[in-house]
Amino acid sequence: MKNIWTLSLVLLLAVCCNEEKTIYKNPDAPIEKRVEDLLRRMTAEEKIWQLTQSRLGGNDNPNNVMRGDEHIPPIVGSMIYTSETAELGNAMQRIAVDSTRLGIPILFGYDAIHGFNSCFPIPLAQAASFNLELAGRANEITAQECREAGVRWNFSPMTDIARDARWGRVMEGYGEDPLLAASFCAATVKAYQGDDPSQPGRIAACLKHYVGYGASEGGRDYAATDISLQSLWDTYLPPFHSGIDAGALTVMSSFNTLNGVPTTASHYLLTEVLRERWGHEGFVVTDWAAVKQLVNQGAADNLKDACRIAFNAGAAMDMCDYVYPKHMQELIDEGAIKMKDVDEAVRRVLRVKFRLGLFEHPYADPSGSEAMSPSAKAELFEDLAQESMVLLKNDGILPLRQGCRITLAGPIADDKDAVLGNWRAHAKTDRSVSILEGMSTEFGSGVRIAKTDAEALSLARSSDVVVLCLGEPSKWSGENKSRASISLPAEQEELFFKLAATGKPIVVTVESGRPLDLSRINEKAAAILYTWCPGHMGGPAVAGLLSGRHNPSGKLPLTFVHDKGQIPLYYNHRNPSRRGDQGIYIDGVPVTPLYDFGYGLSYSKFEYSDLKLDGLTARVSVTNTSDRDGKEVVLWYITDPACSIARPAKELKHFEKRLIKAGQTEEFVFEIDKMRDLGFVDSEGRPFFESGRFILMAGDQMLEFNL
Ligand code: BGC
Hints:
alpha/beta; TIM Barrel; Rossmann fold; Immunoglobulin-like; five-stranded parallel beta sheet; 21 helices; binds beta-D-glucopyranose
């Protein structure tokens, strides 16, 4: 009997110890306990590898021509996974989970910024839709498709404020306005992560590029940036802050040197602001080889130095340059990197893995994208595309009447590639519905396609209208795709003028990842529809807008210039010291935009009236005076004419898009928050409020009040 008791006690102790030992494997244990349990079991080598990102896989996307690095141990923390299907990643994961000492799963990441297999409008176009809900639904599909391939981390949203269309990466962000960018950033984070990122169909977001990358001098990619601390806090940081508040699990440091210090080396940004002030609990990954680049940027003398500087600044994970695994141990031995800081960085990486449920579900989720049928997806993508397109000009020719004879011309008419734009992940051109296909379905035999310029001219003569599809090839925007000129390709402008000379009305559609300089064609075009890079369903969206099946409702998220010499030109600039005809260009270029931020036409007519303020509740009535139902975006602006820190000429504080039926009036409401909407921040980001006069604007309505 005594023996039985002793044996039971031994067994009980063994079970307890075992449980104690495997807390990190217990899905019911609190995440912080699991993190600490795992951390204390790890060797320094295992820790350093958790702070390393390598790559695996390959595809034909020019952004991802890589096959992965050899000799990467399966204890690596993360891999950029560039294959389209899950097999390779699952096989690698199996080794990490089953054959390493601690079985820590690898976090696979990828850039799926406007779809993974599906392709919908680029982020800049999403911003033009001003429809957070619609864009959110599309981004949820990205998350599901990523999960299906085993990708649990998306390097998106890019929330860099960009005011220079020469910079190729304007396509990846949400334009020039901090509120618009902050709103889309938060909505995208929610679309990827949901309320619980471990749930099926959810992945981790990564806010990038932190921070100021969009202010690259001269629009040249990778160039240094100089942003005053005031502008940093009032303009460039708010979208990131909003993404953190929305729960973004990770942040990517940017490539640029900011005010003399590369952001990847900035303790102020990566640790003081992000961790200490904003309370971010996830981790920072550097951008690609950004640790190495500290040497190019003049911030580090050699790679070991770069490792010390980036890591001590707060960059927890090193993307693809292997500087951490090469130099960190030596720096720890020398005392230049403290083990407690290594632990803190590893803790953050593990926390994200646990929050993603990666330990319980390390493999691809094959049912990831089944949530929606292909036809429902196509409908959603067409809707987002048509809501993001901006009608810049219409002399009355649009919508085109059924039965009219249309010549379809221009290089983009039958181009299934340009419409996908850059950073298209695994999207295939054969899934694109071209403008030609869309127009043929929409207008039937009334559409004749011109294959050459000569054919375009001859067909135009016997047509009622020419639809001329112009734009940039897809590889003209994106990373490392700066342009000194932002004109349409010269031969396209030439074709436009030849066709215009026939006297036939020319409806121009422009596909592009950036605002182009349209000043030369603007006057002679009968209509201009700016389509951005609309994705797989761009063709039907264009056709539907031209026929009137859709009613245009997109608005510009970026200012369009008359001349590239005006850059940077943005609506929320601070006021100049002299007014009127002072400070203008003496060579005849206007100082005002060709098309302003927030501009965009509709087939409906909207009239604003009765702007009033009741306490801090603002209301305005908008009447659709036309006979067509249409969506209107009400943009609420506030101006503070006098403040100890001069405020922008006007600032967008709230927006709402809503359908207004023909002949109906809708009331729009904006609940003004005193600190958020009337206050400001100083150059340290401290919010303050100064009482005085304010001007509230919505449409053509304006109201002054004192507070
Ligand atoms: C880009 C990032 C991207 C990363 C990984 C870098 O070159 O700047 O935006 O997330 O590559 O593909």
